[in-house]
Structures are given as structure tokens and as C-alpha cells.
Write a structure and sequence with these properties.
mainly alpha; 9 helices
């Protein structure tokens, strides 16, 4: 599942690149080279980068972003080769740091990959709850139609008529509520547990 989400992340970044290459940084992105991407990266990082983006910079280039060390940064041109070939569609990068910096260059959100992965897991959990709620609503509809009570008794039998009406009222009033509470409660528990293990896994990687 982790690798599948990474592929989705890369695809989303590439789609954002196709848009951005026609925009403000056309000269740098339309026909990207290592040198152009390096220069654009410096321009972007001069404009108040977030802590996450600074971490990406350090992880890939093995140096802290420092306005006074541009010459040292300029020596890192080859580090932008995986991003260049990725944007050109020539390679499928596996270096997560290069992928994260590619996301910074085209201003893709959410980034870095850790945040994208977390958002995907949260959306997946919400979808699971939504499906369960729909199923619970469908079950309630069946109950209200009387499908879970006995067939209507023959006319003239007052005792069974009373039993039928009473049981139907009880089912309508109590059973649907139990379905919602039990079903949604179970899914909430499963979703919470799943998110816990995802976050724990990310912390250990």
C-alpha cells in the first residue's frame, strides 16, 4: 500500500509540473536541465521556505540552506539530475528526497510525501465510515419496511395483531439505533487503530 501511495504522489507531482511549466517559471521548467532546476530551486528557497521544505533541501543536498553559501549550493547541480529526468518522463525516480524536492519546485501540496501519505490514509478511513453509514441506512430502511418482523397476522386475531404492532414499533425505535451504534463504533475503532499503526510506521522509517 505504501508503494502504491508513493506512485500516486509521483503522478500528482508530474501532473502539477505539466501545469507549472507553462506558468511563471516557464524559462526554467519548459525544457528543464540540471542547471535550470538548481537555479529555480534557489529562487524558491529565497522566498521564506517552510521547515518541511528546509528539511527536504538538507536531506537531498546534504547542506543547510544559507543565503551566504550560494557558491557551495551551485556545486550541487548533479543532485538535480533525477528531478530533470523525472520531469522529462525519462526515468521513474525512487529517491524520496529527490521526489520531495520536485514537489517543492512545482509547489505541489500536500508535501512532503509523509503528509501526502497521511492525507490519503485519513481520506480512506473517512470513505470506510461513509460506506458503513450508507449500509446502516439501508438496513434501517429494510427494518422500517417490516422485513425483520413476522408477517402480518390474519385478521380477527387481536392478540397477534397487538404483538405485531408492538414488535414493529420496538424494532423501529431500538434496532436501527443499535445497528448505527455498533457498526459505526466498530468502524471508528478499526479506522483509529489503522491510523495509529500508519503513524507509528512512519515514525520508525
Amino acid at each position: 500500500m505504501h508503494s502504491q501511495t508513493l506512485e500516486e504522489f509521483k503522478k500528482a507531482i508530474k501532473n502539477k509540473y505539466e501545469i507549472e511549466k507553462e506558468g511563471e517559471y516557464f524559462d526554467y521548467l519548459y525544457n528543464p536541465s540540471r542547471g535550470k532546476l538548481r537555479d529555480l530551486c534557489w529562487i524558491i528557497y529565497e522566498n521564506n521556505p517552510t521547515q518541511d521544505d528546509l528539511n527536504v533541501f538538507r536531506n537531498l543536498l546534504c547542506l543547510e540552506f544559507d543565503h551566504t553559501r550560494k557558491n557551495k549550493f551551485n556545486e550541487q547541480k548533479d543532485k538535480f539530475r533525477p528531478i530533470e529526468t523525472f520531469f522529462k518522463g525519462e526515468t521513474d525516480p525512487s529517491n524520496i528526497d529527490a521526489i520531495n524536492l520536485a514537489a517543492v519546485i512545482v509547489d505541489f501540496q500536500p508535501r512532503p510525501f509523509k503528509k501526502f501519505n497521511e492525507k490519503c490514509r485519513i481520506n480512506e478511513a473517512k470513505h470506510m465510515v461513509s460506506v458503513v453509514e450508507m449500509n446502516a441506512a439501508a438496513q434501517i430502511e429494510i427494518i422500517e419496511e417490516g422485513n425483520l418482523v413476522e408477517s402480518y397476522p390474519q385478521k380477527g386475531n387481536r392478540f397477534y395483531n397487538f404483538k405485531y404492532v408492538l414488535s414493529k414499533k420496538i424494532v423501529k425505535k431500538i434496532y436501527p439505533r443499535k445497528i448505527i451504534t455498533a457498526t459505526v463504533g466498530a468502524v471508528a475503532f478499526v479506522s483509529s487503530a489503522r491510523l495509529y499503526f500508519v503513524k507509528k510506521k512512519d515514525q520508525t522509517e
